[in-house]
Amino acid sequence: MNITHASFVTLPVSDQDRALRFYRDLLSFEVTADLDLPQGRWLQVAPKGAQTVFTLSGPGMGGFVAGSARGIMLVTTDVDADCARLAEAGVAVEGPGEFPWGRMASFADPDGNGLMLLTEAHQ
C-alpha cells in the first residue's frame, strides 16, 4: 500500500451557506474550493495548512444524510480557549475533559455532525 493521506472528509449539510459561515467564520477554516458543478455546489474548507479538507456536501450531492458524520477529531493548541469561543457563539460543548491522550471536548456543527477538539498530551 502506498497511501500518503486522506484527501477529503465529507460533512453532509442541509444548507451549505450556513455551514460555510460556521466553518469559516467560527472555526476559522479557509475555503479551498467553491465550484458550481452540474450536480451541485462543490464546497471545501480546511484549517490553514491542513492536508485533508472537508467537503460540505449539500442536498443532492451523493445522497448523504445531513448531520450523519461522527467522530471528526480536530487538533488544537488550546482546547479551553476554543471551547470558550464556541460557547460564546451559542454552540453546546461537552467538556473539555482529561484523557490519557490529551484534553478533549465535543460539539456539533449546525446540522449535528459530531466534532471533537483535542489538545494532545505531551509524552
Topology as a string of helices (H) and strands (E): EHEEEEHEEE
Which percent range fits the helix content? 10-25%
Please indicate the percent range of residues in DSSP E strands (runs of 2 or more).
Answer: 35-45%
Mean pLDDT: 94
Radius of gyration: 15 Å
Poorly predicted segments: none
Spatial gap, N to C terminus: 29 Å
Number of helices: 2
Shape: globular
**E-strand count:** 8
- Order of strands across the widest beta sheet? 1-4-3-2
Q: Which assembly state applies to the chains in this document?
A: single chain
Q: Please outline the major beta sheet.
A: 4 strands, mixed
Structural class: alpha/beta
Structural commentary:
The chain is of the alpha/beta class and 123 residues long. Helices cover 17% and strands 41% of the residues. The chain contains two helices and eight strands; from the N terminus they run βαββββαβββ. It has helices at 16-26, 79-88; strands at 8-12, 30-37, 40-46, 53-57, 72-75, 93-99, 102-108, 114-120. The strands form two sheets. The chain has a four-stranded mixed β-sheet with strand order 1-4-3-2, with helices on one face. β2 (30-37) and β3 form a beta hairpin. The two termini are 29 Å apart. The mean pLDDT is 94.
